[in-house]
């Protein structure tokens, strides 16, 4: 069925349409986007620490820096961002906090506590996800973590991930 002119009639969306020419204003672009996983490592005490997400899995526009762990998209917009951290052990049953950090400061966090049932239980993880506005020039994101006791250690890299992508608006 060819569309030559649309008047006050409705389209039957169950029909197939063959378009020729250029269609504009449809779809969008979820770029830039990146995914980086975290290598193993330990941490102690309550200090917000930037996660060492140095294993780049995806980086559509070369916007993620594996040496500074910063995502600097250079495209204004809203970004869906997730930070997940895995923990192997917690010797003090402490609180575990995971942060989305913007321009070096925590802006969103998730927190959970391990009880005696999960003490020294491997492969425990938590995450925070949020939509973050980026100005497209100077804003950058990092993933971070903190614990309220000493003795917690990171899990393997498959349990730690930092990722973000632009939302089509």
In brief:
This protein has strands at residues 33-37, 49-50, 55-59, 64-65, 70-71, 77-89, 95-102, 105-113, 124-134, 141-147, 153-154, 161-166. With 169 residues, it is an all-beta fold.
Write the layout of secondary structure elements.
Layout: E1 33-37, E2 49-50, E3 55-59, E4 64-65, E5 70-71, E6 77-89, E7 95-102, E8 105-113, E9 124-134, E10 141-147, E11 153-154, E12 161-166
Antiparallel strand pairs: 1-3, 1-12, 2-10, 4-5, 6-9, 6-11, 6-12, 7-8, 7-10
Describe the structure in your own words.
There is one protein chain. The strands form three sheets. Strands 1, 3, 6, 9, 11 and 12 form a six-stranded antiparallel beta sheet that branches. The protein has no helices and twelve strands. With 169 residues, the chain is mainly beta. The protein has one domain: Jelly Rolls.
